[in-house]
C-alpha cells in the first residue's frame, strides 16, 4: 500500500539585508535563523515535508510560492515567513517589498488548482508598522511603509488562514533568543496544544505572547499582540500528527 502524501511546509527566513540601491548591508536579524531551523525540525516530526529557505530576494520569494503550485501536497500547506516588513508586505533580503496579497493570489484556486481544497496556513513574523505596544535586547522587524505598499490584511482567499506576530500598525519584537511570536508557536507545537483545532491553537499562541512575553532592553516593558484572520470553511487539526 502506498504511503499517504505528506503535508507541505515552506519556511522563509531573511536575516541579512542589503540596500537595493548600493548593495550595502542594512542589518542582521539575530536569532531568527535559529528559531526557523527549530520550527523546521518540529514540523518534520509532525509529518511535514519541509523546505527551509534563507535570505531570499523579493522576486525569489514569489518564485518559491509559484513552485509550490507544481508540488505534490498532502492535507495541509503551512508557510512561515520571518523577515522585516510593514503593513501588508514582507521584505526580501534585497529590501524590496512583497505584497502578502500577491502571495495569497499565487496560491489561490484561480492560479493554483492543486491547492484549491487544501487549507493554507501562514504564520508571519514581521512588523506591520512602527508603533510600540506599551502595555533580550530587541530589534524591530520594521521599515517605513512604501507608498501604496500596504494592503488590506483581511484580503485572503478561501481556505486560507493567516496569523500575524502583531496588530496592524505595530512593531514585532525579535531578540538574540528569537521572536516573541514564533517562540510562543514553538512552545505550543511542542506541547499537547498541538492537537487542538487551528483556531484554538492560534488563540493559545495569542495568550502566550500577551501574558508571558515582554520586551526588555531598549524597549523595556513593551508588549505584543498577535492576531489572526481565517477564511477556512471547517475546523482543521494541522499539527495533530
UniProtKB/TrEMBL annotation:
It comes from the Eukaryota. Residues 5-131 form the Caspase family p20 domain. One of its GO terms (molecular function) is cysteine-type endopeptidase activity. Gene3D superfamilies: 3.40.50.1460. GO terms for biological process: proteolysis. It holds the Pfam family Peptidase_C14. SUPFAM superfamilies: Caspase-like. Residues 178-240 form the Caspase family p10 domain. Belongs to the peptidase C14A family. This is CASP3 protein. It comes from Halcyon senegalensis.
Amino acid at each position: 500500500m502506498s504511503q499517504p502524501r505528506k503535508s507541505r511546509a515552506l519556511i522563509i527566513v531573511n536575516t541579512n539585508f542589503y540596500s537595493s540601491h548600493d548593495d550595502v548591508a542594512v542589518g542582521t536579524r539575530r536569532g531568527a535563523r535559529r528559531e526557523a531551523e527549530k520550527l523546521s525540525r518540529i514540523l518534520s516530526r509532525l509529518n511535514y515535508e519541509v523546505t527551509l529557505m534563507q535570505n531570499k530576494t523579493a522576486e525569489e520569494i514569489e518564485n518559491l510560492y509559484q513552485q509550490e503550485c507544481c508540488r505534490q501536497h498532502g492535507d495541509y500547506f503551512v508557510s512561515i515567513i520571518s523577515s522585516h516588513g510593514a503593513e501588508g508586505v514582507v521584505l526580501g533580503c534585497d529590501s524590496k517589498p512583497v505584497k502578502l496579497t500577491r502571495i495569497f493570489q499565487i496560491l489561490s484556486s484561480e492560479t493554483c488548482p492543486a491547492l484549491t481544497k487544501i487549507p493554507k496556513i501562514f504564520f508571519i513574523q514581521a512588523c506591520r508598522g512602527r508603533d510600540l505596544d506599551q502595555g533580550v535586547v530587541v530589534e524591530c522587524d520594521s521599515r517605513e511603509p512604501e507608498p501604496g505598499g500596504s494592503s488590506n490584511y483581511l484580503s485572503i482567499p478561501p481556505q486560507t488562514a493567516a496569523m500575524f506576530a502583531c496588530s496592524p500598525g505595530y512593531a514585532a519584537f525579535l531578540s538574540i533568543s528569537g521572536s516573541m511570536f514564533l517562540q510562543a508557536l514553538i512552545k505550543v507545537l511542542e506541547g499537547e496544544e498541538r492537537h487542538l483545532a487551528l483556531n484554538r491553537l492560534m488563540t493559545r499562541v495569542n495568550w502566550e505572547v500577551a501574558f508571558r512575553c515582554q520586551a526588555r532592553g531598549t524597549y523595556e516593558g513593551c508588549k505584543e499582540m498577535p492576531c489572526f484572520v481565517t477564511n477556512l470553511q471547517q475546523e482543521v487539526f494541522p499539527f495533530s500528527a
